[in-house]
Write a structure and sequence with these properties.
The protein is α+β, with helices and mostly antiparallel strands. The protein is built from three helices and four strands. The radius of gyration is 17 Å and the shape is globular. This is DUF1840 domain-containing protein.
Length: 108
């Protein structure tokens, strides 16, 4: 199932339900049939999401440090897209909404 986030300050952001649930969980919200991130909540939400992205980047960098490219007995593998890539459109929307004092809605 897809979830579409809307606000007047940015284009709609559509994502799979599991990613929407994960991102909302990071900022302290629950995915329901309808919901809102009010403009008063945006600063905290952005901070929490940015902190989670920083943590993810650090953990990915540590994992890459253990990458055994070309070593015997270790197959090549690629890391899946990180939180920064998956969350960017949503984070960009939150920042735009904050700048224009808009709410972010879903389930309309």
């Amino acid at each position: 199932m897809l979830v579409t986030f809307k606000c007047h300050a940015a284009p709609d952001v559509t994502m799979l339900e599991n990613l929407a649930q994960y991102l909302l969980g990071i900022i302290g919200k629950r995915l329901g049939p309808r919901g809102v991130i009010t403009h008063e909540e945006l600063e905290t939400a952005i901070g929490k999401l940015e902190a989670a992205i920083a943590t993810d980047k650090k953990e990915r960098a540590e994992h890459e440090g253990h990458f055994h490219e070309g070593e015997e007995g270790h197959d090549h593998h690629e890391l899946p897209p990180g939180l920064a890539q998956r969350a960017f459109p949503f984070l960009d929307m939150l920042r735009a909404a904050k700048k224009e004092d808009n709410d972010v809605l879903w389930g309309l």
